[in-house]
Amino acid sequence: MGGDHAPDMVVQGLEIAAERHPSARFLLVGNETALTALLAKHKRARAACTIRHAPDVISNDMKPTAALRSRQSSMRLAIDAVASGEASGLVSAGNTGALLALAKIVIKSLPGIDRPAMAAIGPSARGDVVMLDLGANVHCDVRNLVEFAVMGDVFARTVLGLTAPTIGLLNVGSEELKGDDTVREAAEIIRASHIGPQFHGFVEGHDIAAGTTDVIVTDGFTGNVALKTGEGALKLIGEFLKVVFTSSIWAKIAYLLVRPGLDRLREWLDPRRYNGAVMVGLNGVVVKSHGGTDAKGFAHAVDVAMDMVVHRFNDRIREDLAKLGLDKRGPAEKNRKVGASAGESGAPVPADRPNPTDDAHLATA
């Protein structure tokens, strides 16, 4: 069981989640002795959880290649539960690289998805914004960006509840002639697709925080750099405010006067409110919780997974891919033009996969 504060944080988070989702059931994968002792202290989590013993754990510094060989790790057993249909989805605070590699190989991609992406929600001046990819794919082609736009649209409608989310393609400028051939061609295809009316066009880095669009689409390299830059900027602002309000007695008095507003700002920007990045495009729901989060943050990641399951996220992606003629194609055919039909590929949905409208069954590792 991964995470800086696991397994305590995970069980405490499930106690919160069990109160929010009384009908949900959780498959808790890890050291049975330790988990049994922790559940004894948390009544709601104990009633909602089933423990599955895992003798091994994937450490934060373990390479994905080594993680693939660890078939009895908590992460692998939890992923196996999703792949077999025993669990509706997975929430993990463990090693990100290992989770990506295992999920891609074991759960596999949805038919028609070339590369799954990492999507998450963040704050902006106009409300929450969805951004993908955040690091799963360093290099992306036209097809990948088009797929990300489709999945980002479904993600925003599912998690944010938006009817017609606006979509922007991150570029070095907002003009149509800016950028390389990849982003320009992707923009043309998106504009001509069923989500074309929602397509804003190109957006720049400052548009992320401004909330110019509800969804930001980019490659994983750029997205990860933008994400880490934003996180660093928020920390810097926090340090500046600390220096300003402790510089003199008058500054401390001023802090007391503005403290209610600062508390509200802190609540808006609380990273726990945005915890839970989703690996969209997989043949199952996989949510990555930040490894350093606390129980409240982990519970929010569970909330995200529940939204994905209950609102049939993957079914909606399949429907939208079909509108573009992409629902029958897989990674082996990525060099064909976007929109061309081909033979079916990818992993089928297991017949015994739980019905999302029934009690959701999530695995945690």
Task: List the main descriptive attributes of the protein structure presented here.
365 residues, Isopropylmalate Dehydrogenase, alpha/beta
Describe this entry's structure for a reader.
- It is a single chain.
- With 365 residues, the protein is α/β, with parallel strands linked by helices.
- The protein has 2 domains: 1-116 and 281-305 and 333-365, Isopropylmalate Dehydrogenase (3-Layer(aba) Sandwich), CATH 3.40.718.10; 119-279, Isopropylmalate Dehydrogenase, CATH 3.40.718.10.
- The chain is built from 13 helices and 11 strands.
- The chain has an 11-stranded mixed β-sheet, with helices on both faces.
- Helix 8 (181-192) links the parallel strand 6 (167-170) and strand 7.
- The N and C termini lie close together (5 Å).
Secondary-structure map with pairings?
Elements: H1 8-20, E1 25-30, H2 32-39, H3 43-48, E2 49-53, H4 64-69, H5 74-84, E3 89-92, H6 96-107, E4 117-122, E5 129-132, H7 142-160, E6 167-170, H8 181-192, E7 199-203, H9 205-210, E8 215-217, H10 220-244, H11 249-268, E9 277-280, E10 285-288, H12 295-310, H13 313-323, E11 361-364
Parallel strand pairs: 1-2, 1-11, 3-10, 3-11, 5-8, 6-7, 6-8
Antiparallel strand pairs: 4-5, 4-9, 9-10
From the spread of the alpha carbons, the general shape counts as globular
Helix content: 40-55%
Instruction: Please report the first level of CATH classification, the CATH class of the largest domain.
Output: Alpha Beta
* Architecture (CATH level 2) name of the largest domain: 3-Layer(aba) Sandwich
Q: Give the rounded overall mean pLDDT.
A: 87
> What do we call the CATH topology of the largest domain?
Isopropylmalate Dehydrogenase
The neighbouring-strand order within the major sheet is 2-1-11-3-10-9-4-5-8-6-7
What is the CATH superfamily label of the largest domain?
A: Isopropylmalate Dehydrogenase
Strand segment tally: 11
Give the oligomeric state of the chains in this entry, treating copies of one chain as homo and distinct chains as hetero. single chain
Tally the helices.
13
Tell me the Rg in angstroms.
21 Å
Helix-strand topology string: HEHHEHHEHEEHEHEHEHHEEHHE
SS strand fraction = 5-15%
How far is it from the N-terminal to the C-terminal residue, by CA?
Answer: 5 Å
| Major sheet details | 11 strands, mixed
